């Protein structure tokens, strides 16, 4: 089912400061910040040769990363995103196997303009998983 790792996401309390560390200290190429109100986050992508790191800052009162940051105030690794060819087929197979698909189970359009879904961290070794259809 799984293809490549699309990105690894890090929740941060201060996006501008985190982007500056990746750009100025670590010498990486970083994107402009992009506000995604439908996901409750603002994102910056760190573009590496073999994958991307997604820096996430909460946006709005109901951000899904607010409680994670309350528990990890300096930030921390939040999710890993794997590519899949057919997200609805993957969702249905995962549900059949007992995994919890988050939200209403309908894919949303993610930061790359492609459909995404999230899987409950308690069903995957304590790791929140994002699936992105490529
Ligand atoms: C930019 C768009 C898109 C993209 O294209 O890339 C994105 O990446 S958007 C990223 C943000 N969106 C999401 O994360 C959506 C899915 N997430 C959720 O629905 C929620 O965050 C959650 C996973 C259901 C957790 O919600 P929360 O309110 O934090 O619930 P709890 O505090 O009750 O947590 C339950 C339980 O799970 C543990 N937990 C929470 N988050 C994580 C995490 N990221 N990694 C590992 N474990 C996590 C939490 O600690 C609780 O455990 P216990 O304390 O043991 O009960
Ligand atoms: Co993501």
TrEMBL record:
Signal peptide extent = none
Recite the UniProt keywords alphabetically: Isomerase, Metal-binding
- Per UniProt, the enzyme's principal EC class comes to isomerase
Q: What is its EC number?
A: 5.1.99.1
Record CDD domains: MMCE (cd07249)
Q: Where is the VOC domain?
A: 4-134
Record-linked PROSITE patterns = VOC (PS51819)
Name any one GO molecular function: methylmalonyl-CoA epimerase activity
**Family designation:** Belongs to the methylmalonyl-CoA epimerase family.
> What protein does this entry describe?
Methylmalonyl-CoA epimerase
């Amino acid at each position: 089912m799984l293809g490549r790792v699309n990105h690894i996401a890090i929740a941060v309390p201060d996006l501008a400061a985190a982007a500056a560390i990746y750009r100025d200290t670590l010498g990486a190429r970083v994107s402009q910040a992009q506000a995604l109100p439908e996901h409750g986050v603002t994102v910056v992508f760190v573009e590496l040769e073999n994958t991307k790191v997604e820096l996430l800052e909460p946006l709005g009162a109901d951000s899904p990363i607010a409680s994670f940051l309350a528990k990890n105030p300096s930030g921390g690794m939040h999710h890993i995103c794997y590519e899949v060819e057919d997200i609805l087929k993957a969702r249905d197979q995962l549900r059949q196997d007992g995994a919890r698909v988050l939200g209403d189970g309908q894919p949303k359009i993610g930061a790359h303009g492609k459909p995404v879904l999230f899987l409950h961290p308690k069903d995957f070794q304590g790791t929140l998983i994002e699936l992105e259809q490529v």
